[in-house]
């Protein structure tokens, strides 16, 4: 018996190659999962292109299977497995050893797809402790989008977003659209930005209260203040980075929370004076909480799955590609044409 997989040598999307490998046997406390759907993240592109370099403890080695987020069915259990049985539908966790609490340096070195083997394959063995039960109201494709994008949005919002709080989301990628759905389900007021009016209309239909095109309104921070009568955003999901962080500080409310998540508009470079911003003064000026987010632990993921189930939230799958189209799927994500998530179905 064999499995199908994609591997990369981390030199770019053209290095993605399809191959077969022997089907592994689960060991103690492990299960074999037949992977049905793999959801792509911005990070996967960085890994494949050899640009995922900000965690110095994570180093590249040889060819590897990329990607971290999947939904599949357990087809075999190893000895002493107690959490699951054959036939259970499960989701991967991004950092398999991060079960609860604050992430540690050691747990950070266990990321799926880099440095550990990823999930862009038809089968993979997982430690049973590294899996979460998939919610029954979601398809495999929808459920596969939860491990990184939704958990990241959940960790940014769950402690503070509630009725009447203003949440600002940047762009309409995976994290932002999950953030929109979670924030609305928590009763918050949502402002979302995008470079595309079409995507902003899609965000409106998902419940966004206010939309701003950051291309045609480069002073979107001032627009956030105008829309909130000078109050600003109570919570910001800072996914933009270099071109957005300064403006986030201009439109954060007093006592607000800025979640530092990503850098789709580029990284703020320590060595570049032009990009450098005075985080010290900007943070204290409005008594801001600046919080770094690294996805979240398994117990928070499980709580979030319960929330999705209770509220009936269905993640937005923008486009589904077949397994043989993995490279095209990555190229589509790279083009930025998506709204929400891009998924690969291993069966088509
Ligand atoms: N720290 C963590 O735990 C964590 C977890 C997940 C993701 N991330 C990071 O968060 C970022 C977003 O991830 P993702 O998976 O949601 O990415 P994604 O799905 O690829 O989203 C890309 C979107 O970013 C938007 N964007 C680009 N430039 C922008 C700008 N100047 N201002 C506002 N939006 C801009 C675009 O939205 P429009 O097309 O609408 O303009 C684009 O479609 C990435 O940097 C990723 O590495 C971090």
Structural topology:
Elements: E1 2-7, E2 17-22, E3 30-39, H1 42-48, E4 69-77, E5 89-92, H2 105-108, E6 123-127, E7 131-133, H3 140-143, H4 146-157, E8 166-170, H5 174-185, E9 189-194, H6 197-205, E10 210-213, H7 220-227, E11 233-238, H8 245-251, E12 252-260, H9 279-285, E13 289-292, H10 298-311, E14 317-322, H11 326-335, E15 341-345
Helix pairs in contact: 4-5, 4-10, 7-8
Detailed description of the structure:
The chain is α/β, with parallel strands linked by helices. It folds into 2 domains: 2-145 and 315-345, Quinone Oxidoreductase, Chain A, domain 1, CATH 3.90.180.10; 150-292, Rossmann fold (3-Layer(aba) Sandwich). Helix content is 27%, strand content 25%. The protein is built from 11 helices and 15 strands. Strands 3, 4, 5, 6, 7, 14 and 15 form a 7-stranded mixed β-sheet that branches. A 6-stranded parallel β-sheet has the order 10-9-8-11-12-13, sandwiched between helices. Helix 8 links the parallel strand 11 and strand 12 (252-260). Helix 7 runs parallel beside helix 8 (245-251). The mean pLDDT is 95. Residues 41-43, 148-149, 152, 170-176, 193-196, 199, 214, 239-240, 243-244, 261-265, 293-295, 333, 336 line the site of NADP nicotinamide-adenine-dinucleotide phosphate. The site of NADP nicotinamide-adenine-dinucleotide phosphate has 33 residues, from helix 1, helix 4, helix 5 and strand 9.
Share in helix: 25-40%
CATH class of the largest domain: Alpha Beta
**What would you report as the Rg, rounded to the nearest angstrom?**
20 Å
Strand and helix order: EEEHEEHEEHHEHEHEHEHEHEHEHE
The biggest sheet, with number of strands, parallel, antiparallel or mixed sense and barrel status, is: 7 strands, mixed
Task: Give the count of helical stretches.
Answer: 11
Number of strands: 15
Q: N- to C-terminal separation? A: 20 Å
Structural class: alpha/beta
Residues in β-strands, percent = 25-35%
Indicate how many domains the architecture comprises.
Answer: 2
What is the CATH superfamily classification of the largest domain?
Medium-chain alcohol dehydrogenases, catalytic domain
According to CATH, the fold-level topology of the largest domain is Quinone Oxidoreductase, Chain A, domain 1
At CATH level 2, the architecture of the largest domain is Alpha-Beta Complex
* Small-molecule binders: NADP nicotinamide-adenine-dinucleotide phosphate
Low-confidence stretches: none
Q: Kindly report the average pLDDT value.
A: 95
Form type: globular
